[in-house]
Amino acid sequence: MLTLGIETSCDDTAVSLVEDGMRIRSGARSSQEKLHAKYGGIVPEVACRVHYETLLPLIDHAVKEAGCKIHDVDAIAVTNQPGLVGSLYIGLSTAKALAWALTKPIVAVDHIEAHIYAAHMADPELDYPHVSVVVSGGHTDIFYTEGPLEHSLITRTLDDAAGECFDKVAALLGLGYPGGPAVQMTSLGGNADAIDFPRGDAGPDGLQLSFSGLKTAVLNDMRKRGFVIEAQRNSGRLLTTPDAPVPKSETRTLSVRMPLADIAASFQEAAVDILVRATLSSTRRAHCKSVVLAGGVAANKRLREKMAAACKAQKNTRFSAAPIALCTDNAEMVAGLGFHKVVTGQYANLDLDVLPNKQEKRLRVESAAD
Ligand code: KG4
Ligand code: ZN
């Protein structure tokens, strides 16, 4: 069965054709990164317009790359939640028009569930249940996963998403957008123990996740070290000029300035530790012996390394991560998961709508007192 996947939930336009939920026949992606970089973050209006211009040519491209015709497609899978409302509508309305014109079924795919499925596509041995850690620009959620379409939320960040934190810290360090890859690159050769950034309170059951304290700690630390941080009035963005002249009153702090590599590495280490701690607590609470890491931040090398080592050390918990190429937003994961919706008969109607925010089913875990 050939599924066409369409993904436009944020700032990447992506189309893919996948056979039987596993075999990738084609994958086309158009990134808007450079466009949004000058604003220091995603501008929803811009994202939506660019999806509108890009999507149809990309579908054409993906179909050709798969060596087939659009009529060969058996079903259309489209991300309808969660995401930016305008961006989601571009993908959904295009998918509906195609489904109607081709008289093919349409299935609605949850972006977060699709991120988790990306790990499955590269690891056919992956078994259920497992604890799924989804770390992206918009989400930091940990689920108990019993099947490709069965997820119960264990815990999620109380404030910023991990990727958002990487992006904001990268902006503070003057590294540009998207911040995750830039922080990783800058941290190479840096000393991860140079600054002991706070890992926050994990709460009584170890499941509390928060990144805003870490972000503020980096900001305060940089101020202390004499970095000049200016708030840009019109955009609300923070700009850092590490080489700007230090005011006389702050000359004392000059001697404690340190390379950006050390700050980036120390921040990255703290962010990774927060994620690893919550993951291990989740596996214990859910009595689960398998962990899956997915989402844009899962591309982070240090996170993959530390998560793998921590899982191994915790009773040889099985660890699996989405392949780097399928960590950030893509349509392979949408087409792949769409197949499971088709085979279980979970078709959508043409009145399908977008759900920018979604409510999760929660897993009841034993509290620390239990
Ligand atoms: O999953 P994704 O493509 O989009 C969302 O669904 O949000 O994730 C994008 C996020 C961005 O915040 C980006 O900075 C982060 O993933 N990211 C990384 C790395 N590559 C991408 N964060 C840390 N290290 C990386 N190597
Ligand atoms: Zn995503």
Describe it:
- The protein has two domains: 2-124 and 325-343, 2-Layer Sandwich (Nucleotidyltransferase, domain 5); 130-324, Nucleotidyltransferase, domain 5 (2-Layer Sandwich), CATH 3.30.420.
- 38% of the residues lie in helices and 20% in strands.
- It has ten helices and twelve strands.
- The protein has helices at 33-37, 44-65, 85-102, 111-122, 162-172, 179-187, 212-224, 260-285, 301-313, 332-343; strands at residues 2-7, 12-19, 23-31, 75-81, 106-110, 130-135, 140-147, 150-156, 228-231, 238-241, 290-294, 318-321.
- A hairpin with a 2-residue loop joins strand 7 and strand 8.
- The protein is globular and about 60 Å long.
- It starts with a strand and ends in a 27-residue tail after the last helix.
Spell out the blueprint of helices and strands.
Layout: E1 2-7, E2 12-19, E3 23-31, H1 33-37, H2 44-65, E4 75-81, H3 85-102, E5 106-110, H4 111-122, E6 130-135, E7 140-147, E8 150-156, H5 162-172, H6 179-187, H7 212-224, E9 228-231, E10 238-241, H8 260-285, E11 290-294, H9 301-313, E12 318-321, H10 332-343
Parallel strand pairs: 1-4, 4-5, 6-11, 11-12
Antiparallel strand pairs: 1-2, 2-3, 6-7, 7-8, 9-10
The structure holds 5'-O-[(R)-(carboxyoxy)(hydroxy)phosphoryl]adenosine and zinc ion.
